[in-house]
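Checklist before submission:
- one chain only
- standard amino acids only
- sequence pasted in full

Submission:
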Amino acid sequence: MIRWKRVYKHLTDRFDAMAGWAVARMGSATAFALALALVFVWALTGPLFEFSQVWQLVINTGTTIITFLMVFLLQHSQNKDSHAVHAKLNELLAATEGASNRLIDLEELTEEEILHVQERFRRLFVEAKQLRPGQKTSVGEEETTLKE
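Returned file contents:
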């Protein structure tokens, strides 16, 4: 069992490295230029192949396969970035005096609960706009002083 965990970890580490490399390269101007050149060459070969169904199938199949694989690479990259941003924001909330620690891991709440929290902050914003500097406003039970 431990051996499988090491193998799995090794495979996921390799995938992570490969995905990061691929996403960085596929998002480059060079990759776009190569893709554009490929489409251009494909279009130019149309008359040579008499615009046959096979000629059309080549580009359709190629783009479908590439799109299918890129969806997984991009989702992996987005998930990783999202986790990193959440960790950084959680650290800021935990380290900031007066910040509501209840907002740490907010993304784990249901959509309805998140909308409820958003509405509380909207009301707080409207209330804060009407206060003079130095007056206090609250987020739930916690109080925060507005500064000039």
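Reviewer check: The two ends are 60 Å apart (CA to CA).
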